[in-house]
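Help! Submission page says 'invalid entity' but I think these are all valid:
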Amino acid sequence: MADWDELDEALADYTRSCNENERLRKMQRDWSRVLHFVCSDNDVTFSMTVDHGEILSTPRGLEGVPDIVVTTTSETFCDMFWGDLNPVQKYLRGEITVKGSQEDVMRLDAISYVIWPDS
Amino acid sequence: MSTPTTLRRSVGTAAATATSAGLAFAAIDYLGVVSILAYAPGTTAALAIFIGGLIVVLVSSIFSELNGLYPSAAGIRLYLGRAVGNRTALSVTFTYMTTVVLVIAADAFLIGAAVRHVLHEPSALAYVWIVVLLGLALAANLRGVRLAGWVQTIVTYTVLAGTSVLSVIAVVHVGGAFRQPFDLFGRGSFSGIQAIAFALFLYAAFEWVTTTAEEARRPQVITRALFIAPVLIWIVSTLFALALAHLVPYDTLHGSATPQLLLGTAALGTVGELWMLALTVLTALNTFNGGFLVASRFMYAAARENNLPRPFAKLNVNAVPWVAVTSLTILSGVVAALVFATGQWLMLVSVGAAIECAIYAVGSLCVVRLRARVTSERPFRMVLARPLASFGVVLFSALFVATAFADPKDSRRFSFAPFLVIAVLGLLSSLYVAIVVPRLQRAAQARSAERRPTRRPSRPGASGPPSSVAGD
């Protein structure tokens, strides 16, 4: 089980990778969303605010009204934000559950695919 | 844990019902009614559509329970995988997705034929219209243009209301005559069964609304849509069938790809013809928007899962899986052109109806198996699930046979052609899953072995590598 410190470290790396990727920023230029993340194995929750493809903040706790809610284990979140797993495989096995539009679900995976094409 | 339950944008009952009805009511449904009339002549078609609607209540219950268990766009993979195994699930899903191509191809062909008919152009120009329509759909999809939810809702209710109003005008039209009421077995011993099987096709694809479960305000929203949408389709289809039976002789319908235009002309002349043309074009908005979206995103996910070659996951600058969308367009165009060249448009109805019946049989089987294997609570539980779902397996298998061997062009004959098309599709799908998918998976594993080391820093006491790695 990963704690908040590990998640925060992973999120910082993910944020940097996303914001520094020119192609991703262009691809997500019209994508502004509030995401909520819920760890199913502990009480940790966190949010992510994306504005025109740029990740603005990833605070602990649930902030704002979400467009997308992602639920899985803290370990899976950590691996996902470090780019060490393929989110689609977990999703198709029912190990990651998402509330939100199909398009947003695909966009979320597309981020991982663009910044880590070998994932 | 405080988990929020309300999304900023979520789907309510009216929108979900519109999605369900919009997915089901495509231009090909107008031809579907003609196929029913081939086996249930005159007003008997309304009886077949009613019985088909009663059977759809069973389908609604089955998919409500399955959706309650796996409320996800990936639901079909999850419940099929857990009920019949991953390999079979993949084969079935690939075959199921071919119906999307058939419906897109059918709509491209039917709208091309309708526009050409109204403009009195030479028949060969239908090819041009097919290319133009699919080209527009391709361009819109590649640019990431999608109908807003509220536009889709308005389009769907406009098509349903417009078809109903014109049908009512046609029914009260002076000069027509109702023919052959309640003659369900008048075209042979099996004609009634075949008519009911084709009636089921009118409702086909309404269950795809379950792929929007993740957007639903509450789980009950999808269940309500699954029960309300078939009622709307029943009303519209019944009115349309009665109107055709009242005003247009079957001999005229028999060789036409545009029965809705014939009805419009018979009821209101040129105004009626243009009315029905406008509605036909509107149905394409739903088909090209929803169909392309469902199928291309399925292909993207399959490629990301290493079940399709990796190029199908390639994204363009608008975050659209462009290889998947382009391949779908080309495939649909080829099918539409083949249908036009051979004049076998009713074959699309037979193949589509048979595949849907097979899917309903498999869905029933999933309910039987998952009742035994998965004991978790669901928001919807079928009453008498095991006996009713077992009955569904038998019923839908029988209806599959009834449509797979039907010849809607000559109701007194049987035809192997639809079955052969489905058998080839199923065989190709199974061979692909048995031979190609393992190779793709091996290649992915090889790439995974060669790829960069894991990025996540190790921590004291951590139990080895990440819980899952790429390509696993």
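Support: the input was valid. A stray whitespace character was the problem, and the output above is from the cleaned input. The CA atoms of residues 26 and 283 of chain B lie 5 Å apart.
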